[in-house]
Structures are given as C-alpha cells and as structure tokens.
Design a protein that fits this description.
The protein is of the alpha/beta class. The chain is built from eleven helices and seven strands. The chain has helices at residues 27-32, 60-74, 86-98, 117-133, 135-146, 149-154, 156-167, 171-182, 211-220, 236-239, 241-256; strands spanning 4-7, 11-16, 37-42, 79-84, 102-108, 198-203, 224-229. It has a seven-stranded mixed beta sheet with strand order 1-3-2-4-5-6-7, with helices on both faces. The chain is globular, with a radius of gyration of 17 Å.
C-alpha cells in the first residue's frame, strides 16, 4: 500500500500530488480542512516514502491502480479525489479505469490533452538533466515556473519546501515520471463522460497550465465550476492556502450534502 498521511473522519478526500513532489505539498489542506472529512494524502509510487520497484516509466495508469488499491486497503468504497498537475493526469486514468470509486473530482493546475511532440522532447531533456546533474538542477529549472514571482519573493517557506521535495526525489524517479507523463493518454474526449461534481482550481499566473486551459476543460465537463486563485502560479494550494481552501471547503460541503 502507498505511504500516506491521514487526518480526520467523515467524507473521504484523497489528495494526489504533482510532479516531482510528495504528500507534503498538501500540508495546508491537511491542516486546514480536517474537520468533518477524512483527508488522505498518499505518496505516489517512487515519490516521498513510497517505493518504485522495477524499471520503466511510472505511468498514470499504474498510479491510478495504486490509488484503487489504497482505497481497498483503507476500506473505502468511494472518495472525492483532488489532483494537481500530474495528479490530475492520474485522476483522468482513475476515471477511465476505476470510475466507480470516484464520488467527485477537484482538478488543479492540470490539463486533459496529451503532450505535443515538443512537450515530450522537453520532458526527456529534463529527465536526462536529472540523471546527469541531479535533482537540485531540476529544482533550479522548475521553481521559476511552478511558483509566481510574488511567491518567490515573499514566501521563502514555500520556496524552501518546493525545493526540498524536488531535491528529495531520486533522479531515476524523476526520469521515469517524466517518461510516464510523456506517454499519457489524451483525455479530452473523456471530459463529457465525467458526470460527477467537479471543481477546477487554477492559478492566475500559471505558465504551465494557464487559466484558458481550465476554462476550456470546464466548458466540456457536465457538472463543473472553476475558481481562479489570483497571484498564484502552478501550486496555488501552497502559494495561497486560504484562497484555495475556501472554494474547496464549499465544494466538499456541497458533496457531503448531496
């Protein structure tokens, strides 16, 4: 079973981290939302404290299957899933493979379309950089994109945590994770089939998954609303936890009351 953090009791909510992070990225949510909810934040295969046996790409399908196995191990039939960036890619696979386990979705800083050839090339270049120069080099490359200039200037604690998570990830896992994302299935045609309540949370300054990407997904989802976090980039849950947690809490309350 995946290593995970857990808080509270009530409606199960599973938080799926982005790349190349771990469950610690959800600490502001675990600390701020535990009343009335059973919050679960796993480390995906190869990240944090979860091992990654074998070789080859860490695929979105394998992560989704691991999440289903985690629910089985915890005795949970259905849960709300909240995924950020790569975590969102995993949730599209979760819907494709285990949709009966999904009560509602929160999609953050993510996208449904597959990588372009250029994006795949960039992923493979970063994978090679990780293997050649180490995880610290990857942190140097990623931090300016995943955190807004405002966050980088005014939130040294967030910058330090993001750097710590990246540098703590094995370079081999970084390479295998990039290859897994490069191979992911295009989920654009899947969006109209996602008939559970869905919340989209995007940072206004995100250069990786811009607001326009979220708007387009929101129009294709049958039961969705979108909230933009001002001044945040790719990690709005860390950059402005209060602005992120408020709509999330409202959404979870509505799901509980269904």
């Amino acid at each position: 079973m995946l290593s995970h953090q857990s808080r509270g009791t009530g409606l199960p909510v599973v938080f799926v981290h982005g790349f190349p992070f771990d469950s610690r990225m959800w600490q502001p949510q675990l600390d701020g939302l535990s009343d009335g909810f059973r919050l679960i934040a796993p480390d995906l295969r190869g990240f944090g404290r979860s091992p990654a046996p074998g070789e080859g790409p860490l695929t979105m399908d394998s992560h989704a299957d691991d999440l289903a196995a985690l629910l089985d191990g915890l005795g949970i039939e259905r849960a709300v899933f909240c995924g950020l960036s790569m975590g969102g890619y995993v949730l599209f696979s979760m819907w494709r493979r285990h949709r009966e386990r999904v009560r509602a979705l929160v999609l953050c800083s993510t996208r449904a379309d597959a990588d372009t050839e250029g994006a795949r090339a960039n992923r493979r270049a970063l994978a090679e950089r990780a293997l050649r120069e180490g995880a610290a080099s990857v942190a140097d490359a990623m931090i300016p994109s995943v955190l807004s200039s405002e966050t980088r200037e005014n939130r040294p604690d967030v910058v330090a945590l993001v750097r710590e998570m990246i540098e703590g990830t094995d370079p081999g896992t970084i390479a295998r994770g990039q290859e897994g994302m490069a191979r992911r299935t295009d989920s654009t045609d899947l969006l109209p089939e996602i008939n559970v309540p869905t919340l989209l949370l995007f940072g206004s300054e995100d250069p990786i998954s811009p607001v326009a990407v979220g708007d387009e997904m929101c129009r294709s989802l049958p039961d969705a609303r979108m909230v933009v976090i001002p001044g945040a980039a790719h990690l709005p849950n860390l950059e402005d936890p209060a602005a992120f947690n408020a709509p999330l809490l409202e959404f979870l309350g509505a799901v509980t009351g269904e």
